[in-house]
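Per reviewer request, we include the raw input and output of the structure prediction for the construct analysed in the revised manuscript.
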Amino acid sequence: MERENFSVLDLEKHQTKDINDSHINGELAVVWRNWDNLINNPEMIYVNSVNPREIKGPHIHKKRTSYFYCISGKMVIIVRDGDGKYHEIDTDSSESKLICIPNQIAAAIVNPSDKISKILVMADIAWRPNDDEMINTEFHGYNWEKWKKE
């Protein structure tokens, strides 16, 4: 799914097999290979944990483009596109989706579940403490109440 200001990429998945009898013992998802041209060479890779029913953001990165892949639990990335419209990208660790949020695009991460979510994040520019690269913002008119625990 390509959007004007962000993208959601379906990643390549492969079943893995047992070395003794070749039964299916799992799968692997290709998140980054240097020849795929899906991601510019990342300068930073980290795991972002989001506590149950919590929201990180929204904020804008001035220079950094970030790629998000849910490795455990659930996540919803809320994006405000260049026209001010909100998009909710819902995924979980059972899907192989890579979400790209380019620099200058506002986004937030929501964990809608009752368990901690872990998200693999790759960035084209490495974070440094006090680098003043991020701007906190508000999503006026967005319904944050729907993510609160009932």
